[in-house]
Amino acid sequence: IQLTQSPPSLSASVGDTVSITCRASQGISSHLAWYQQKPGKAPKVLIYSASTLQTGVPSRFSGSGSGTDFTLTITSLQPEDFATYFCQQLNSYPLTFGGGTKVEIK
Amino acid sequence: HVQLHQWGAGLVRPSETLSLTCTISNGSFPDFHWSWLRQPPGKGLEYIGEVSPSGYINYNPSLKSRLTISVDTSRKQFSVNLTSVTGADTAVYYCAGGVHIIRGVRFDYWGQGSLVTVSS
């Protein structure tokens, strides 16, 4: 299953609301997770089952979607949110990831 | 909480074998799916394979012919060997501990990452 993320990168300011989309090549129900990765670090789970917030993740992160189209939304962007975000499908093997979206400071 | 520490050669010659090992702290083999992933420089993540709590080993079909994942439960370690490497195998390799969510694994715990460069 291929996952296509858009946009590949975006520029935003602190306080903005940003949305990242992930489209699956076939239906995956709600079996999708979102990760945040900072330079030189391992990824960190933000959301799973498309919309469930991982323990300890701030509520400004939210996820939505099912089937083939999914969205990660970050409300009121904070300085520590500038990073790269990946989606992952958990519907079938081999597990696959999107190409990533880099969120940069405007 | 679970901690993973990984190690192995950072430079491998073309056609040789890449080997990495990951040690588990504050966790046990039956607790999670122990996995390997990789990330070529500037690119996205690729699932390599995993060992389930029952001991079942799942490989990415794209790598399966060159891949071996093994476990040493007494040492709380798991390893990956990838044979006949080429430049396309240059990447940061991660070990990870995952939770099974209905149909697949969510990767909750990660090693520090190991940059492996394939070059003569």
SSE map:
The complex is a heterodimer of chains A (106) and B (120).
Chain A: E1 3-6, E2 9-12, E3 18-24, E4 32-37, E5 44-48, E6 52-53, E7 61-66, E8 69-74, E9 84-89, E10 96-97, E11 101-105
Parallel strand pairs in A: 2-11
Antiparallel strand pairs in A: 1-3, 3-8, 4-5, 4-9, 5-6, 7-8, 9-10, 9-11
Chain B: E1 3-8, E2 11-12, E3 18-25, E4 33-39, E5 46-51, E6 57-59, E7 67-72, E8 77-82, E9 91-101, E10 104-110, E11 114-118
Parallel strand pairs in B: 2-11
Antiparallel strand pairs in B: 1-3, 3-8, 4-5, 4-9, 5-6, 7-8, 9-10, 9-11
How would you explain this protein's 3D organization?
- The complex is a heterodimer of chains A (106) and B (120).
- Chain A has strands at 3-6, 9-12, 18-24, 32-37, 44-48, 52-53, 61-66, 69-74, 84-89, 96-97, 101-105.
- In chain A, strands 2, 4, 5, 6, 9, 10 and 11 form a 7-stranded mixed β-sheet that branches. In chain A, strands 1-3-8-7 form a 4-stranded antiparallel β-sheet, with no helix packed on it.
- Chain A contains no helices and 11 strands.
- Chain A is mainly β and 106 residues long.
- The radius of gyration of chain A is 13 Å and the shape is globular.
- Chain B is built from no helices and 11 strands.
- In chain B, strand 9 (91-101) and strand 10 form a beta hairpin.
- Chain B starts with a strand and ends with a strand.
- Chain B has strands spanning 3-8, 11-12, 18-25, 33-39, 46-51, 57-59, 67-72, 77-82, 91-101, 104-110, 114-118.
- In chain B, strands 2, 4, 5, 6, 9, 10 and 11 form a 7-stranded mixed β-sheet that branches. In chain B, strands 1-3-8-7 form a 4-stranded antiparallel β-sheet, with no helix packed on it.
- Chain B is globular, with a radius of gyration of 14 Å.
- Chain B is mostly beta strands and 120 residues long.
- The chains are: A mainly beta (106), B mainly beta (120).
- Chains A and B meet through strand 9 and strand 10 of A and strand 9 and strand 10 of B.
